[in-house]
Specification:
The complex is a heterodimer of chains A (about 220) and B (about 400). Chain A is mainly α and about 220 residues long. Chain A is built from eleven helices and one strand; from the N terminus they run H-H-H-H-H-H-E-H-H-H-H-H. In chain A, helix 3 (about 60-65) crosses helix 6 (about 105-115) and helix 5 crosses helix 6. Chain A starts with a helix and ends with a helix. The longest helix of chain B has 10 residues, at about 5-15. Chain B has helices at about 5-15, 15-20, 25-30, 155-165, 195-200, 250-255, and strands spanning about 50-55, 60, 95-100, 105, 115-125, 145-155, 170-175, 190-195, 205-210, 210-215, 225, 240-245, 260, 275, 285-290, 295, 300-310, 315-320, 330, 330-335, 340-350, 355-365, 385-394. A five-stranded mixed beta sheet of chain B has the order 4-3-12-7-8. In chain B, strands 5, 6, 9, 10 and 11 form a five-stranded antiparallel beta sheet that branches. In chain B, strands 16-23-22-18-19 form a five-stranded mixed beta sheet. Chain B is mainly β and about 400 residues long. Chain B contains six helices and 23 strands. In chain B, a hairpin with a 5-residue loop joins strand 3 (about 95-100) and strand 4 (about 105). Classes of the chains: A mainly alpha (about 220), B mainly beta (about 400). At the A-B interface, helix 2, helix 5, strand 1 and helix 7 of A face helix 2, helix 3, strand 1 and strand 2 of B.
Chain lengths: ~220, ~400
C-alpha cells in the first residue's frame, strides 16, 4: 500500500491511541537535561540518515509507523548496533508496523545514527507517581455521554473500520477493544480530532464521538 | 549519612556533564525531583516519584531510594507491561479451563469462602538492571528499579485447580490476561508454568496488594503471584488458566523469556536448542543508600539495601570497602524466605575525607552467591552482579 493511499485512508480513520497518556506529546514532559542531549544527537543523526534520500523525514517516519503502539522513550533508551536495529525493525514490521517498502532501511539508519552504542547515557526522567496513576483512571463522559451504539457501529464501519479492523481489534491502526481510553472520553475525542500516527484529524461532532465510544464499549 | 538537602544541593549545582559521567545510573534510579510542591500534606519528592522508561504503555521504575525498606509502597511500585492494561473491570473473571473435569469461571466475589492467604514477596522484572548488560541488548533499559516487595493477598491457585479437577496427564498451565495486543499481528502474551509450580502453595490468585484492592496498573481485579519467579509469570488482569499437557506455543513462551543453558560468548546469537525458559530469579543485593554519586560528612556512614534470591532465603550479605579484597558481614533485618527480600545494614566510621566505594554481595541458603560479573545473555535477563556505589565523604 502506498504512503499516499495510506495517508488519504487515514483521513477516514479514528483514534490510534493506546492510552490517554499518549495524547499529550511525550517529548514535552521529559527532563530538560534529557531533552537537550537527545535533541542535539537527533539533529546530527537525522542529517546523516537523510543524506542522499528524498521524501519523508525519518522522525516523521517514527511518529507515523512506531508511536501508535509505544512512546518514543522506547527508542530513545536503546543503545543498539545497526545489526541489532535491523533485527528490531524487522520484528516490528512482522508485528504490524506499517512501514512502506524501503522505509525500513531509512528507519534503521536513523535509529543507528541516533541510538547506537556510543550515543551517550540515556537519563530517564523522574515523574510524579500520582500523575502516572491518574493517567489510567476513568474520566466523566461530559459532552460525550449518552451515545447511541447502533449509530456508533455505522459510524465506526464508515470512518474507522478500514484501519482499525472490522472488529476494532487493530489492523493499520491499533486495537480499540477493552481499552482504558474508552472510559476517558475527552482524551478519546481529542485524539480523534487531532489525529495520531498515520491517522489524520477527523472532523466529527460530539454526538458522533459519543456514539462511536458507546459502540466500542459494547465490544469484547 | 547523606541528607536529602545535601543531595539536592549537589544535584542542583553539579553540571549535567559531571552527573552524566559520574553518576549515570544513580540519577536514573535514585534521582530526587527538585521541584515539588510538597505542602498541604501531599507527598513530595521521592515519595511521589517514578523513574520513567515509558509513558504508554507505562514502564515505570521505583526510585532506588526505596530499596532500604521491607515493603515498597504501591504508589511507587514499579510498573511494566507489554501492551498496557485493559479497561478497568472489577467483574473481570478468570477461567480455569482446558484439561479439567469441571471448568470454572470466577470473579473476585466468587473467591470468597476459599482460604485466604497473604504472602510477602519480591516482584522483579526479568529484565531488571538490563542497562548494565554489556554488550547492550534491546528491551526496556532498566537500571535497578524494576523490582519491589509487597504483601499479596488472595487464594491459592492449587485450591482452584483442585476444585476444577486437573487431568492426570496435564503438565502445564497456560496463563494470560485481559491485555489484548495492539494489533492481531502482535503475538498474545501467554506464559506457561509447570503444573508442579502452579500447585505450589505459594502460587496465588491475588486480589489485594499491600492490604488494598489491586490497582489497574498492578493487575486489577485478579493477578497471578509466583514468588521467587520472574515477573513475566505474574500475569496481570488474569483471565485464563488453561491446563494443558505442554507449554504454550508463541513468541512469549518459545522465543522471549529464555536464558542460555550454558555460558555463551557475549554479543553472539544463541541457537534455540541452547535456551531454556526463565523460572526463578538469581540471588541479588542492591544498595539503596547512600546514592551513587552523592556526598556525606566525615564520620559515621551507613550502607542500607535489600537482598533476595528466588531459590532460597538469604544466608548473608557482605560489604567490601576495598574493591572486593576483603568483605565484612552486614546485619540482616526481618524475616527471610524464598523470593522474599530482607533489609541489610552496615555501619562504619570514615575519619578522613575521601571518595568511598562500597560493594555488596549476597549469598542464599543454597550457597548461591552473587557473582562479580553478571552472565551475558541475548535478552539481558537476571543481571545480578555485585552492586557498586561510590560517594564523596568531605
Amino acid at each position: 500500500m502506498s504512503a499516499r493511499l495510506l495517508r488519504s485512508l487515514s483521513s477516514l480513520v479514528l483514534v490510534a491511541a493506546l492510552d490517554a497518556s499518549l495524547v499529550g506529546c511525550p517529548k514535552t514532559d521529559v527532563a530538560p537535561s534529557q531533552d537537550a542531549g537527545v535533541a542535539a544527537v537527533s539533529e546530527a543523526g537525522a542529517q546523516s540518515a537523510n543524506a542522499g534520500t528524498s521524501g519523508i523525514d525519518p522522525k516523521e517516519l517514527v511518529a507515523k509507523d512506531c508511536l501508535s503502539c509505544h512512546t518514543d522513550e522506547m527508542l530513545m533508551q536503546q543503545r543498539l548496533t545497526e545489526a541489532q536495529w535491523t533485527a528490531v525493525v524487522k520484528k516490528m514490521t512482522t508485528w504490524g508496523a506499517p512501514l512502506d517498502p524501503g522505509d525500513d532501511t531509512k528507519l534503521v539508519a536513523y535509529l543507528s545514527a541516533n541510538y547506537g552504542p556510543d550515543a551517550g547515557p540515556f537519563i530517564p526522567p523522574s515523574t510524579p507517581a500520582s500523575e502516572m496513576a491518574v493517567a489510567l483512571d476513568p474520566l466523566p463522559d461530559g459532552p460525550y455521554a449518552g451515545g447511541d451504539p447502533v449509530k456508533g457501529k455505522l459510524l465506526f464501519e464508515e470512518k474507522c473500520g478500514t484501519c482499525h479492523g472490522a472488529n476494532a481489534k487493530g489492523l493499520i491502526g491499533v486495537n480499540l477493544v477493552d481499552r482504558p481510553i474508552l472510559y476517558r472520553a475527552p482524551d478519546f475525542a481529542r485524539t480523534v480530532a487531532k489525529g495520531r500516527g498515520r491517522m489524520l484529524p477527523l472532523q466529527i461532532t460530539d454526538t458522533e464521538q459519543a456514539s462511536v465510544i458507546a459502540y466500542l464499549r459494547t465490544l469484547h | 549519612m547523606i541528607s536529602r538537602l545535601d543531595r539536592r544541593a549537589f544535584l542542583q549545582t553539579a553540571s549535567l556533564a559531571f552527573i552524566a559521567s559520574l553518576a549515570r545510573r544513580a540519577w536514573a534510579d535514585g534521582g530526587t525531583p527538585t521541584t515539588t510542591a510538597g505542602d498541604g500534606g501531599a507527598l513530595s519528592g521521592a515519595e511521589d516519584a517514578f523513574v520513567r522508561f515509558g509513558s504508554a504503555p507505562q514502564q515505570l521504575a521505583t526510585p532506588l531510594s526505596f530499596m532500604e525498606r521491607p515493603i515498597t509502597p504501591t504508589r511507587v511500585f514499579f510498573v511494566r507491561s507489554h501492551f498496557g492494561p485493559p479497561a478497568l473491570d472489577p467483574a473481570r473473571k478468570v477461567a480455569i479451563t482446558g484439561m479439567v473435569k469441571s471448568p470454572l469461571t470466577l470473579s473476585v466475589a466468587d473467591l470468597k469462602g476459599l482460604p485466604e492467604v497473604t504472602i510477602t514477596a519480591v516482584l522483579q522484572c526479568a529484565g531488571n538492571s538490563r542497562s548494565f548488560i554489556e554488550p547492550r541488548v534491546p528491551g526496556v533499559q532498566w537500571s535497578h528499579g524494576a523490582m519491589g516487595q509487597a504483601t499479596f493477598t488472595g487464594v491459592r491457585l492449587k485450591d482452584l485447580l483442585e476444585k476444577a479437577g486437573v487431568d492426570t496427564k496435564a503438565g502445564f498451565v497456560r496463563v494470560s490476561g485481559g491485555d489484548l495486543p495492539p494489533k492481531p499481528t502482535v503475538p498474545a502474551f501467554i506464559r506457561s508454568i509447570p503444573l508442579a509450580r502452579a500447585m505450589d502453595p505459594t502460587t496465588l490468585v491475588a486480589t489485594r496488594m499491600n492490604g488494598e484492592p489491586l490497582t489497574l496498573a498492578h493487575g486489577a481485579p485478579l493477578r497471578l503471584i509466583v514468588p521467587g519467579w520472574a515477573g513475566d509469570h505474574w500475569i496481570k488482569w488474569l483471565t485464563t488458566v488453561n491446563v494443558q499437557k505442554d507449554e504454550a506455543d508463541g513468541f512469549y513462551m518459545q522465543t522471549a523469556y529464555k536464558f542460555p543453558t550454558e555460558p555463551v560468548p557475549p554479543g553472539q546469537p544463541v541457537p534455540p536448542e541452547k535456551m531454556k525458559s526463565l523460572t526463578t530469579f538469581p540471588v541479588k543485593s542492591i544498595i539503596g543508600r547512600p546514592a551513587d554519586g552523592g556526598r556525606a560528612a566525615v564520620g559515621a556512614q551507613e550502607i542500607v539495601g535489600i537482598a533476595f534470591s528466588g531459590d532460597a532465603a538469604i544466608a548473608k550479605v557482605e560489604v567490601s570497602l576495598d574493591d572486593g579484597k576483603t568483605w565484612k558481614p552486614a546485619a540482616l533485618e526481618g524475616e527471610g524466605g524464598v523470593g522474599r527480600w530482607q533489609v541489610f545494614r552496615y555501619r562504619f566510621e570514615q575519619k578522613a575525607a575521601a571518595r568511598v566505594t562500597a560493594l555488596a554481595r549476597a549469598t542464599d541458603r543454597k550457597n548461591n552467591a552473587q557473582p562479580e560479573k553478571a552472565v551475558w545473555n541475548p535478552s539481558g535477563y537476571h543481571w545480578n552482579a555485585w552492586h557498586r556505589v561510590s560517594w564523596e565523604v568531605a
